[in-house]
Amino acid sequence: KAAWNDFKHHLSKKEDTIMIWEADPLPEISLELEKLGVRSSVFELCANAPEKGNFISKMKKNIQSLENSLK
Q: Which helix (H) or strand (E) holds 39?
């Protein structure tokens, strides 16, 4: 609870906030962030070879995710 309060305090100083994740956040975390007006974007680091596609296709997906968060 203290961590959320600290986060809210820092958040109050920002006009527009996007949180970038390596993977999808837990649903309850997403819900709390949405309540605070924080948008989430998943940006896969692609440290290992992806099961589908390649590094470029993953980076294109990451860019699309960020663009969607900005809308």
A: strand 39-42
